[in-house]
Specification:
Radius of gyration: 22 Å
CATH superfamily of the largest domain: Gcn5-related N-acetyltransferase (GNAT)
Largest sheet: 12 strands, mixed
Distance between the termini: 58 Å
Strand content: 25-35%
Mean pLDDT: 95
Order of helices and strands: EHEEEHEHEEHEEEHEHEHEEEEHHEH
Bound molecules: coenzyme A
Number of strands: 17
Number of domains: 3
Strand order of the largest sheet: 1-2-3-4-5-12-6-11-10-9-8-7
Number of helices: 10
Oligomer: single chain
CATH class of the largest domain: Alpha Beta
Amino acid sequence: MQIRELSDNDADDVRRLRKVAFGSASEEDPVRPGRRGLIAELDGRPAAVLTINDFHQFYGGAPVPMAGIGGVAVDPHARGRGVATGLLDRSLADLREHGQPLSALYATVPSVYRSRGWERAGVFEWLDVTIDRLPAAPRTVARPAGETDLDALHACYVDLASTVNGLLDRSQPAIDVADVLKLDIVSVAPGHDGEVRGYLTAERNRDGLRVFDLIGRDAATQLGLLSELTSWAGLLDQVSLRVTDPAVTGLLTNQGLRYTVNTSTWLLRVVDLPAAVAARGWPAAEGLKPAAVDLDVVDEHAPWHAGRQRLVVDDGSVRIEPGGSGAVRLHARALGPWFSGMQDSHALRRAGLLDGPAGLLDRLVGAPGVPRLADFF
Ligand SMILES: CC(C)(COP(=O)(O)OP(=O)(O)OC[C@H]1O[C@@H](n2cnc3c(N)ncnc32)[C@H](O)[C@@H]1OP(=O)(O)O)[C@@H](O)C(=O)NCCC(=O)NCCS
C-alpha cells in the first residue's frame, strides 16, 4: 500500500470513493486552503481517502489547533485489510508535522478509530422544541444580515465559543463565515447603538425549520430571538435548535419532562501531549500551589509522547516535561476525554484507561460531569 498527499488531480477518484462509501459525494474540491488529505493506493489505483481540516477548538478559553478528520472511505474490495488503520497511522505523523496536537472526528465505526487512540470526548446535539414551549418574551426587532455584519456576527460567536470547551473558533481559511449568508434566514438583533447584540441563522426545508445558531450577548436578546420562532406557529408544530449555546437550550426554553435530543458524539485524539497542553487554556490552574502529576503515557501509535512525562503546574501555567516516576498510567484513549473534560479520572479508571492517583488531572480541566439520577420517582 502506498500512501501520499491528496492533490487537485485526485478530485474524480475522491468523488468516486465517497459516492460508493456514503451514497453521495460533494462537488467541493477535496484540497483547498485549510484542507488537505491523504490517499492510499493499492496496485497503483486509489483505494482509500481521508481529509484533514485545519480547525481550532476552544479549551479553557484558548483556541487549540485541531485536525478535523472527515470522509474516511475505503473501496469495498480493499476493506478488512488494514487500509483505514494504515491511513490513520500515517495521519498521526502528518498532524504532528503540521503542528496539530489534537484531532477530532465523527465516527460511524468507533472501533476503527479507538484502535488508534481516538475516544468519545464531546457531543453535537440538536434539540426538538414544540413551538408552544418557546418563551413568550417580547420579540426582538431583528433585521436581515448583510455582508457588513459578518465581522460582528463572528465576534458574537467567538465571545460565546471561547467559553464553551470544544467549540470551533470558525477562523479562516478552513471556515468562511460569509457562507452563512447562503442560509434562508440570518436575523441580526441590533442594540440601541446599532451594535450587534445577537443573531439567528436557520434553514427551512420540507421537514421543518432547523436553527443553526441562536446567539445573544444577553438573556433579553436570546429570549427575543427565541420568541421570533413563535411566528412559525400554525405551519409548524416544532423547530429544531442546534445546541451551540447550551445556556439557550438548557436555561431559556421550556421543554417538558421528556423531549427529543439528537446526539452525535465526536472522538478526540491528543496527537502531541506537550504541544496540546501548551496550547490549552488552564483557568483552573490560577491560584493552585505548584504541583505535578507523574504520567506514564501508553501510546504505541504516537511514540513521540509515549512513556514518562511529568505534568507540571507552576505559577498558573501548565506544561509537560519528560521524566518523572510514571505513577499515573494513562492510555492513549484516556487523553482525549480527559483533555476535553468529558470524563473524570474515576470513569477513565473504571474503563481500564487510567491507573494511579489522578485528582489533580480532574481539578485542572474542571471535569464537572453531568449530575445524574438513575432512579425515577
Ligand atoms: C469503515 C471503513 C473506513 C473501514 O476501513 P477498512 O480498511 O476496512 O478498516 P481496517 O481494515 O483498517 O479495519 C480496522 C479495524 O476495524 C474493524 N472494522 C472495519 N470496518 C468495520 C465495520 N464496518 N464495523 C465494525 N468494525 C469494523 C476491523 O475489523 C478492524 O479490526 P481489527 O483491527 O480488530 O481486525 C470502511 O469499511 C469504509 O470505507 N466504510 C464505508 C464508509 C465509512 O463508514 N466510513 C467511516 C466514516 S467515519
